[in-house]
Amino acid sequence: MRSGCWFLLPSLTLAYPYFHDGSAIQPDTRSLSEIYHAALKEGGLVTLWHGGDEKNQQDGLKLAFEKRFPGMTLNVTVDLSKYLDVDIDEQLARKSLYVDVAMLQTLQDYPRWKEAGALSPYKPIDFNTVFDQIVDLEGYYMGVRFFHWPMTWDSSRVKGSGPTGYNDFLGKDYKNKLVLTYPNDDDAVLHNFNKIVQEHGTSWLDRLLQQNPRWVRGTQTPTDIIVNTNSNQTATFAAFGPFGSSSLKARVPIKDHFTSWAQTGAIFTEAPHPQAARLLMNFVISREWQQDLVENGLWSVRKDLSQPSGYNQSLLDMQNTDPLGFRDFMMDREMVERLRFWYEERLGVAKGLDPIFDNM
Ligand SMILES: *[C@@H]1O[C@H](CO)[C@@H](O)[C@H](O)[C@H]1NC(C)=O
Ligand SMILES: *[C@@H]1O[C@H](CO)[C@@H](O)[C@H](O)[C@H]1NC(C)=O
Ligand SMILES: *[C@@H]1O[C@H](CO)[C@@H](O)[C@H](O)[C@H]1NC(C)=O
């Protein structure tokens, strides 16, 4: 038992110590239909907390899940992973957990929760189709979808064929035209900036600042601003879609490093709806849902699907991204904190509305 985990409520400890008997569980041997009926019988509800920075970001998942499994309700809450995890810690400490499943960017939480006994091991039917490197082989947690930060621009307002690497953003065409998420407000953005500065030096950052970028909170906010053609900003990087507008283009850098990671999911030991939680874990790694992600330009966590259009390698095979390196970065909280303040000194404290409430 690690008392240091529950700094919020130090007098409370966790109910379930972690026992490790070395025996790996097997993937669920039930059919999907059997799991579905068990979930219906349990009440037909599952509560998911998903990392993100706009409330509606998981509406697509909710819609697809509820359509695939009539009678089921996916009660999904999206908020910044760094806020969801501390809320979960508090619920755990108070022994009043009502979240069934967490799918977060804060990859450092999962080994800690596993060790504390807070996670329930489970391998969905298709567990073995998911890349081994992004799962806990004992089944306590697993990568459920890949995210990555592309470079994004409005092709109706950017001349030429768009950026191919981060040095392009230093050119005169991008003066006063960039909108960027504060790296000191999101660890995945911080990771991307850190990689760029490692490759191009701090002079790259100095020159970027001379471009007078607009700094915002939330990783969808830049794209929302670019899509609005009345805005002055036309391009971003280390930020994300949706890529709904036809003139909005996105691609990863040709040579420069870009950040990617496996958003990781787990079921809690105290999940009030364990069967529905299992059904959800089966669905998120299912061929149909992952294929849907691929068609929307994302990489699949399954080994048996093709790459998104325009790419011929999995994220784990590409030279200029490293989802496992991102996990290691997130585990090193001392380094992350030092970096965050290095940026904060240069950019100032992140200002603006909490992206969840910015109505974009
Ligand atoms: C749905 O999720 C919200 C936020 O996590 C929670 O407050 C609410 O109780 C949940 N609803 C049900 C019916 O469990
Ligand atoms: C866009 O740029 C123009 C010219 O620099 C400036 O006058 C205007 O205020 C800017 N608009 C916004 C919304 O910032
Ligand atoms: C994958 O695509 C890249 C860039 O388009 C190309 O250079 C490379 O040869 C391709 N590799 C394979 C194995 O097809």
From TrEMBL:
Coiled-coil ranges from the UniProt annotation: none
Record keywords, A-Z: Signal
Matches recorded under Pfam families: SBP_bac_6
Gene3D superfamilies: Periplasmic binding protein-like II
Keyword Signal: yes
Signal peptide start-end: 1-15
Entry's transmembrane regions: none
Stated name of the protein: ABC-type Fe3+ transport system
The species this protein was found in: Gomphillus americanus
